[in-house]
Amino acid sequence: MAYFTGFTCVGCGAPYQPSQDLLLCPVCHSLLEANYDLSALRDHLDRDAIAARPKGVWRWRELLPILDVGAIVTLGEGDTPMLRCDRLAHAVGVRELWVKSDASNPTGSLKDRSITVSATKAVEFAYRVLSCDSTGNKASSVAAYAARAGLDSVVFCPDDTPIPKVTQSLFFGAKLIRVRGHYSQINAMYRKLIHSGRVNWYDCGTDNPFRYEGKKTYAYEIAEHFGWQPPDRVVHPANGGMSIAKTWKGFREMQALGWIDRIPKMTLVQAANCDPIVRASLAGAVTVAPIEKGPTIASALAGADPGLLGARALEAVRESGGTAIGVEDSEIIEAMTLLAKEGLFIEPSGAVAIAGLRRLVASGRADADESVVCVVTGSGFKDFDAIASRVTIPDDVVDGYEQLLSAAVAIG
């Protein structure tokens, strides 16, 4: 039985059927929100029985917008590690800190949670090509899931996208189009192309309302891990901000189902040099204005204009009692180092969650007695040069056992 009942436009309220192949609302061009028969789900879906299913995003399939389970395209994404980090909690200044590492997803980033859904919809709708605009991680994921489904892929990335991300996309078989300019400029051109009707590709990018539902699974996994008693706060990096908005939606759905009785404070973090959502939040705005992009080590978050997504992120922060905060590159680098001391190799754009929480606690905007989950979104291998430049490989090479012994003894 399919519990997905269709979409409602968040702008004009127009309803759409679940079988329709849509991106934005055809009437007012606003975002679409997926709806489910929560009353029927409450009667028929047992949260504890889900734990017996094979791990991954698709064990929550009744809460995802698909009509044909036979179309599911998966690489085993989701159910990523939840690691209690007591030393890191002490360094950041909170009572209890858990790190949820989406670096363990199949392509090494959070994007797999959502692209598995859009690839599945592409199969349902009988497309032959997946496409996206990306700062790198999304492109890698689209290419991988297209390959898994036996489809082709085309990805558009800024010309300064980290080489490991570009390499991963190409190795999976994507056709890569590199574009001069920052991500928000490329996003505008890509969206114009997709909506022009000149190409018949399935868009896994910014406007896809099916894709983003996959990000709700953060909430389900976190709530289940805590025995259906969610933590006080969930912290997530943000570019467009839809991850935080959809995680909030997942918690709200569980509350409506009677699975949980409270919702964590949704907290988003951006790089200070590219923080349009943070600025809007501090100003008390309900929409997000574009800003001039500044340089940041967190390249995956370098979006100067989140567009329609930003308003949804602001709503999640505001309604949950959370907050939004920007962090400097120096703080991000220190957060990467702190994560490394826990054995976690995380790219700068993922480490911002730790940097943001640390700044919140230091400023008194987060309580030191809180229990917190920080989502770190991508592997350090995704932006390897940014990390490699911060270590020194020894020039000396030992020759034979005696030199090896001397070197070892010198270390102590």
Under the CATH scheme, which class? Alpha Beta
Q: Low-confidence spans: pLDDT under 50, at least 5 residues?
A: none
Q: Could you please say which CATH topology applies here? A: Rossmann fold
Q: In what range is the share of β-strand residues?
A: 15-25%
- What's the number of helices? 15
Radius of gyration: 21 Å
For the terminal residues, how far apart are their CA atoms? 64 Å
Helix content: 25-40%
Strand order of the largest sheet: 4-5-13-10-11-12
Which CATH architecture would you pick? Answer: 3-Layer(aba) Sandwich
Main pleated sheet: 6 strands, mixed
**Overall morphology:** globular
**If you average the pLDDT, what whole number results?**
96
Instruction: Supply the helix-strand structural class.
Output: alpha/beta
Keywords:
6-stranded mixed beta sheet, 412 residues, single chain, 4-stranded parallel beta sheet, alpha/beta, Rossmann fold, globular, 13 strands, 15 helices
